[in-house]
Fold this sequence. Notes:
By secondary structure, the chain is of the alpha/beta class. The protein has helices spanning 7-17, 37-46, 106-117, and strands at residues 3-4, 22-25, 29-32, 54-62, 67-75, 80-88, 95-97, 120-122.
Amino acid sequence: MTAALSAEEIISQLNDKFPGAVEEAGADSVLVKSDSLLAAAEYLKTAKGLKFDYLNYITAVDYYQYFEVVYMLTSLENNHSITLKVRCYTRDNPTVPSIRGLWQGADFQEREVYDLMGITFEGHPNLKRIFLWDGFPGHPLRKDWNQ
Length: 147
């Protein structure tokens, strides 16, 4: 069983490496700004002592005021995990950078979030619906979606 790594241990490293990138943190989660996501994720994957080499999952939450994209990362080498988050503050065209280039497992998961929540992953090489058909009206996991 992996142990959740304290966010405090990571926040100081991220703040030193990427000043202003961290918006807030919980006990075992870190919320970074959207424009810093790729750099922070790459650092978490490659930094000595962190080495978050495994992407468990990507999901998204609709809080009405914003969307939150949630990444669960695990270090198989160090046996610890962390939750990385990023927010989209617009409902019209929510966009975050794709992390598919860092973790190949993000491919279908980003497509799932795109299909069901309508969040675009900028830089994804094949961002198209994965569950619903082309032309489906809307994104059914959004709180404002009407059938």
